[in-house]
Design a protein that fits this description.
The chain has about 210 residues and is α/β, with parallel strands linked by helices. It has a single domain, classed as 2-enoyl-CoA Hydratase, Chain A, domain 1 (Alpha-Beta Complex). About 40% of the residues lie in helices and about 20% in strands. It has seven helices and nine strands, in the order E-E-H-E-H-E-H-E-H-E-E-H-H-E-H-E. The strands form two sheets. Strands 3, 4, 5, 6, 7, 8 and 9 form a seven-stranded mixed sheet that branches. The protein has a two-stranded antiparallel sheet with strand order 1-2. The longest helix has 26 residues. About 25% of the residues are buried. It comes from Acacia dealbata.
Amino acid sequence: MPVGIPKVPFQGPEEEDASWVDLYNGLFRQRAIFLGERLDTTLGNQIVGLLTYLNIEDPTTDIDFFINSPGGGIRPAVSVYDMMGGVEADVQTICIGTAASMACFLLLGGEPTKRIAYPHARIMMHQPIADLTINPSSGIDRFMAMRETAWLYHACIKGYAQRTRKPTWLIHKDMLRDTFMTPEEAQVYGIIDQIGMDTPEETQAPEIID
């Protein structure tokens, strides 16, 4: 039987008593933001709003951005990416499952030295999805839509190149196909800076007792 979103107690600095809030509301008040689904315009605007509010509230304390997403539209992702770089507070990105497509781009956009993936996370680069809201009705409109898509696509390539310090031709080549990476491979590539938990080098087999 589904139980819905759990409630947790939260007491603000100026509150005498704790109040019960849903789990994600409580985590948000602790400066934790979650992207756990496909990113669309509505969700992108919500994340931009949360980043803005948390930065106004305290620009000196880090914001933790947890990512487990198959990606989404290029426009909302670019808006979140720009806001992550625009706030004064450092945004620490943490991949806790999958960061694919534009979710990988957001993982990349965290504060340098503060981009993390957990040991069993999967990171995947590929071409972004063009989610232009216009409905081309003529050849000129179609041309403008294609030009806009190309501009956003090259902006993503430039962002990858700046963050990973790799040439744009290599980024373009790797984005032409689905490039899956382990956390170790993503760290070498320059998408993340560290792996969240150290995995044991060897796992000892359990002793068999007759």
